Protein 1
Amino acid sequence: MSAPAEGQGARPGLLGRLGFSGRTLVIAVPMLWLLLFFLVPFFVLGRISLSDPMLARPPYTPLFERGPDGSLEWLGDLENYALLWADSLYRNAYLSSIGIAFTSTVFALLIGYPIAYYIARSPEPRRTILLLLVILPFWTSFLLRVYAWMGFLQREGLINSFLLWVGVIDAPLQMMQTTFAVQLGIVYTYLPFMILPLYANLTKIDEAFFEASADLGASPVVTFLTVTLPLSVPGIIAGCMLVFIPAIGEYVIPALLGGPDTLMIGRVLWDEFFSARDWPVAASVAIVMLFLVVLPVMWLQDYLDRRGLKG
Amino acid sequence: MRRGWTLPVLAGLGFVFLYAPIVALVVFSFNESRLVTVWAGFSTRWYVALFTDRQILNAAWVSLQIAFVSATLASVLGVLAALVLARFGRFRGRLLLTGMTTAPLVMPEVITGLSLLLLFVAMERVIGWPSGRGMMTVIIAHTTFCLAFVAVIAQSRLRDMDKSLEEAAQDLGAGPVRVFFDVTLPVIAPAIVAGWLLAFTLSLDDLVIASFVSGPGASTLPMVVFSKVRLGVSPDVNALATIIIAVVAVSVAIAGWVLYRQARRRERRE
């Protein structure tokens, strides 16, 4: 894996002095695991995206076929990608995933910011207690937190019962199986991911800035807008990334709270695989998602890291 | 803003938003009626139903086993990866390893699940292993995605720790293996425990990846719960949720108390 001379002495001391064999072994174990179970699967994914579905086990055509004269014939094609391009279902699913993730991120920021700011300004031990209260839902089941909203949002659910009882509405509102329910579910389940980096960032801001601003006659609102908000930009970026990224590929939330018209790409992939049993199309949806969503996100994170803008 | 009422009110509403669904879930788990929204008197029948449901109990046992093994494997591999990245300086493949330990953090679960399943199917065809899918394939998948989380936590601890400790041990003649087990490991142990707990929780919680790579007889708890709640609200799931919330709340309360005491002791010392 590594040349014997290289690295030795590049950083003197410690484990750098491990003999060639020991050192290589320690590098090789995690490296080989990740190569086999993380990197190679993407090549398999790419290879199957070039096949056609077939009624067999496994349900896709081979890439090569031995012709009558014994020569190998290439059978792969880009038909699946052409389908993704031609059928507006897939294009709409990608776009609406990004749209839903974006809206949810904005609302998570609007709800999460005051919570993070309040915790950051709280004295101990209230601060620790509130922080644990934010973390607690994160350690409970994600699936059950989404499920909790089903009891709230359904036709005979708590919100409708309450609104009917108060007399605000005459007939139950349709809240389940809507895009609104999906956005609500995302905001709810990912809120801790927004609050924690914001909190970490806000506690680092020196109190003296606020005092100076107040001494110079700025009102609390002006201080917030001109001092606190600009200083918390790294926290805002970090929190938004942590909500936006997983929200795009979300499957569970649209499956439980969304309606048939709530298109999200994670759900499209799932249905292609489990319902339509079309492995090649599912694989090509994944490959396109990788290039359109994952790689830009990784590039953006790297860019923000280098500019030191992350919390 | 700081002394006004706007901030506490907004934050308070935020906490209501966070906890209202959880409180409702717990309250209605003690409801006599099957209807999850109409209160019909106190009852523990859904807990009885839960503890006599063989399918749920089996799935819970499968999930706990998978989570235990995956978290342990992920901790070993994650610490190795962190050690290599934080201490080994330059080596061929460094950039690749860095990428492979950070990419799983942003990878959508549907992609991880699908690509691993396709790998397992292809491997079975070519080398005959793993034969079929079940607990083994779920453990491999969970280890792979949890590894990244452990590596990130362990790496940041390794970067923060005082390197002179390791150097002192080395100057006193300890070999690299001895330095690691006698000096480095005890120092980063809290980070490894935190990583293990996170990996355990992530594995226990995962629905999407397990659904792709699991096989007959190895349904995990989230898979069984998902197939139940897909059909609508069901009160025994509320009972299950209440138990999970109670376990987590007690653990978090204990952890919080320990952290608070440590902080107090540190303050007093200073």
Note: The CA atoms of residues 70 and 146 of chain B lie 8 Å apart.
Protein 2
Amino acid sequence: MTQIAADPIAPEPHAPDFDAVPGAQVKGRSPWQLFWSRFRKDRVALVGLAFLALLVLIALTAPLIADLVGHDPNDRFQREMTDEFGLPKGPNGEFWFGADQVGRDVFVRVAYGARTSLMVALFATGVALGIGTVLGMVAGYRGGWVDTAVSRTVDIILSMPVLLFAIGIVAACSTTAEGCLGGLVKPGLPLVVFVISVFSWPYVARIVRGQTLSIREKEFIEASRSMGAGGGRIMFREVLPNLMAPIIVYGTLLIPTNVLFEASLSFLGLGVPQQIPSWGRMIADGGALFDVAWWLMLFPGLFLLATTLAFNLVGDGLRDALDPRTQA
Amino acid sequence: MRLRRSRGILAVAAAVALLAAACGGEEQPRQEGQDGDLSGGALRIQMESFVFECNFDPTCEFVSYALMMQTNSFLRPLMNYRHVADDPGLEILPDLAADMPEISEDGLTYTFTLKDGVMFGPPVNREITSQDVAYAFQRMASQQQGNPYTYYYEGVVEGFELQKSPAEDIEISGIETPDDKTISITLANAVPDILFRLAMPATAPIPQEVASCFPQSGEYGRFVISSGAYMFEGSEDLDISSCESMEPIAGYEPDRTLNLVRNPNYDPATDNPEMRSNNPDRFELSVNTNVDDIFNKIVAGEADSSPDDPPAKFLRQFADDRERLPINPVDVLWYIGMNLTQAPFDDIHVRKAVNLAIDKDGLLRAAGGSLVGGVATHILPPTMGGPEAEDYDPYATSGFAGDADLAKEEMAQSAYDTDGDGICDAPECSGILHISRNEAPWTEFNPIIEDNLEAIGIELETREIEGGVAYELVSTTSENVPIASHAGWGKDWPDASTFFEALFTSGAIQAGAGVNNNVGLVGITSEINEERELGIEGNLGDIPSVDVHIEECIAMELGQARIDCFNEVDRTLMEEVVPYVPYRWDLESHLISENIAKWEFDQNAGEMSFAHIAVAS
């Protein structure tokens, strides 16, 4: 019992390890070892993980990349890389991904765009996970009016036309420097993170609430209660550890959604300011020139696709590896 | 006029001048046969937005395309133009007036006789009288309108004063209508360009029985009754039996469509064929927010033309084809405007530093290069200022690329640079609201502008918004916008005064949404701010004024001395007031479909000429 309660990864009894060398002594493996050996077999997920590692590396070393190439993301090389009509020139020896309409290096901007996408998506997802977990857990554990209140809020937010709302808010709050609500709501990075978080936490809350409902009926919870533990202690010491698996999985699957969300907001002109490179904005700005400057859309588009795909693959792999009911 | 297209040559190579000369008076090949064969068909126009800043209400509408439509096809003021290219298009001629006016001996009273048989379109269906012309002036004088034209007539027409009363109750002592066909206008003092002022569509006759129901600015825009060759489609269905019964005319749906059809009451015998050919049967304007799609459609023949500037790739595609891409010189300036009451732009050193920092060549390139115009080095386009003004460049930098070092030297003299290192470092130097537009080429200007100003420590918070909204916002005094790059300005008539009166006199500063074109607030004082309830919050002390100088120039007879006078005002503004960073004088390029059988350009309006264009039918 103790072992299971303390085991944050797999609340169910472990399946026997069929990979053990026949005849050798059966060694007990830790839950992490089991998880890793299962995950490792998912080749596709490993490729995804490798790409994400590369992406994180690019994001972290973007300034270094800019230094090596010799172009900052906002350096304009209009005279060298745009023609007499202001149209950009394509990939060459010095500008590997070509230049944009004001002569900026697309390769360097794609690298910096990785930062924007990862930062926004990770941060916003983190906030959403935090809020969603707490509210979902409290709603599932307490039940009653708390559950009703949270669940109805979740329903309302999930039925809102997100992008229309975002468009409306930004349009209304972009005509003055201070924006709305005395400076709280104005176009820019904080607003993007805020919008994404607000519309993401309900997904997490729903899942967490569901898991909490089933966990709360378990005997070890009853045991804790009968030993005198209070609700808060039970939630955070007993329930939460058992939620980690689904949280990790859904968090990982939520990230690509939020990467695309940020890209969509930027595409609509509602995202980060133009000096901060964003794949979504680059795709939007490149759209009108697709037939004469294909590189403007292609490179940020490919990276966006690859990132989203990689997160999805890793997330699927995590889910398969963490849920012992599926055969690896 | 606030224009989206502009003109200007100057710094551009001889190639452009050659182009301009070649394009100027050239007519597109006509179809075989007489003029009658050009008649008929529908001209289909698509635009990214109407940009009407006063909903097409002639009393307050300022956008050049609307002015072109109104003077060419919709309304008939006392005077008008031929609506053709170059100098012939700048000559003033009688339109509603039967002839040039009789001028009194003291030169102050102009008496016009109206033509017979000029009628309002349906549903008003009656002959136009002199009282209808007087009523147009009364509407301009009514403060309920919030009208940007007042300064053109206040102090010019005797007794014309902005008042809080409804138009119907206003009496202007200088305007007399002894009978239905006679109107005499008495001036407060000699104003040599008065005939041009009487060609503004705001002075065209307005039927009181309809317009009195719509006293607020812009309201009448959906009910405009035609006095010209065309009218809103569906005008006949308007029920004018009472104010309550009037529903907006179907032919104009704001932000969506605007259709003009022939006015059945129009009699070509009352008109001058040099001024109007009236070829198409219909004009169909529609909004298409996808600029790329607009021009793809024009290339494919699914639309015929657009007032929007063709994106660079279309310029490149048709660079050598003057039939599909006619280019006309036009008097328009594109500029970055700074509000003299808002920090840090209340310091002249900062404004000068900004002028030195901006990469004008980069902005021109981003807009499409030499086919769209030339770098502007001062305010008055050289086509209006003459050859003496051509080389004047008070903030010269190598290759017009801006010079951060020179800019820093200037900035170092400002109190906002507390340590004198050339970088603005006071708290007022950051978080500065900058209004720009959310379409190309402004989306490409912003990286350049933001970067240029960051180099001298000025951090902008750029907001990219729709053109019409941008104009309305920045032209509202109570919004206190510090800096804006959305705007262009073109002449209202062929005289340099139109570049100065509306933009730089204190008299032009009015309260109300979207009516103030003196966005720099040149000449403002706290007394004016209080008296006119402008809602300006900022530094109102010691704002320079050029009122007296401009007044002197306006009083001069038309001719070289008058032009010289305005050139001097230009210099004073550029060196001692510095409200603008001028960056482009425009060339007007249009991409037109193969359906267009005859191209014509309205030199005064700076737009395509509805009056003479023809479509294959």
Note: The first helix of chain A runs from residue 2 to 6.
